[in-house]
Amino acid sequence: MRFTFRPLHPHFVAEVTGPRLQDVHDPADLARLRAAMDQYAVLVWHDQPFADDEQLDFAQRFDGVLHARTSLAVLGRNRFGNDALTDVSNVDEHGDIMAADDRRRVSSVSNRLWHTDASFVDPPGRYSMLSARVIPPVRADTEFADMRAAWDALDAETRAQIEHLHAHHSIAYSRQVLGFEFDAAERDKLAGVVQPLVRTLPRTGRRALYLASHASRIVEWPVPEGRLLLRDLIEHATRPEFVYAHEWHVGDFVIWDNRSTMHRARPFDDRAHRRELRRTTTLDID
Ligand code: OGA
Ligand code: MN
């Protein structure tokens, strides 16, 4: 067996040991990892020192087409000259910690709301991969929640009430919630999309709540009732029993399935410490 999987949570998440991912090219190995993603939804590696181009190559090898229409791309912030490599950091192009009122900082701050990546584009995000390059000396975790377990735990009446509903997802909405406004031209580029509220995952047939801070309303319902439903479901789906907290170390590499999990960044003193990760996200295309 080339890979070993050690479960880290009763519902989901496994730590993987095996070869360096930069060296994994065999289609059978990649298929084994995708099958593990179907089972665990979040896979965690340690000691995976990715260079930027290696991370981009691995992401495409693993799952095809990369997401590049990020909010950071719209705000014109990319230190790496490639919008498919998302700069998940609190530093500017000089490597200095960004000012608290830096407009580009909104993106990292908004990651503290429970969300799934790229639910606001069509096709939406499938796998996200985060590579830890600089980690502060204080805890600055990412938390993940299992949306399949959250669906499984709903009563039959709630399931029947919600399973055919749709939500409108827009990144402008999740930023507005925190008091941030895009201008008209930026908003045009960020017009949202409609998504099912409950998804059925291919291969496993499991069902999952498809929730995010980007979900602004339920299409079939009046706005207030829809927002209240979304709040109730997010509250349910992020109960401690469904949540795993990842404590980062330099060299960690984490892949998660955006179709079946939500995640959020936890706060830390980001005016005092640098934190730099790089993200690649694939699109849900078959
Ligand atoms: C992301 C994200 C959380 C974090 O990169 O998509 O939400 O802890 N990151 O940085
Ligand atoms: Mn995210």
Helical fraction equals 25-40%
Structural class: alpha+beta
Beta-strand percentage? Answer: 15-25%
Give the number of DSSP strands: 15
Question: Which compounds are bound in this model?
Answer: N-oxalylglycine, manganese (II) ion
The SSE order reads EEHEHHEHEEHHEHHEEEEHEEEE
Largest sheet: 7 strands, mixed
Strand order across the largest sheet:
1-2-3-13-5-15-4
Query: What gross morphology would you assign?
Result: globular
Q: Roughly what is the average pLDDT, rounded to an integer?
A: 95
Any idea what the CATH superfamily is called?
Clavaminate synthase-like
CATH class: Alpha Beta
**What is the CATH-assigned architecture?**
4-Layer Sandwich
- C-alpha-based Rg, rounded: 18 Å
CATH topology tier name: Double-stranded beta-helix
Low-confidence stretches: none
**How many separate helices?**
9
What is the end-to-end distance? Answer: 28 Å
What does this structure look like?
This protein is an alpha+beta fold. The protein has a single domain, classed as Clavaminate synthase-like (Double-stranded beta-helix). The protein contains nine helices and 15 strands. The protein has a seven-stranded mixed β-sheet with strand order 1-2-3-13-5-15-4, with helices on one face. A three-stranded antiparallel β-sheet has the order 12-6-14. Strands 8-7-11 form a three-stranded antiparallel β-sheet. β1 and β2 form a beta hairpin. The two termini are 28 Å apart. The model has no long low-confidence stretch (mean pLDDT 95). The structure holds N-oxalylglycine and manganese (II) ion (MN). The site of N-oxalylglycine has 10 residues, from β5, β14 and β15.
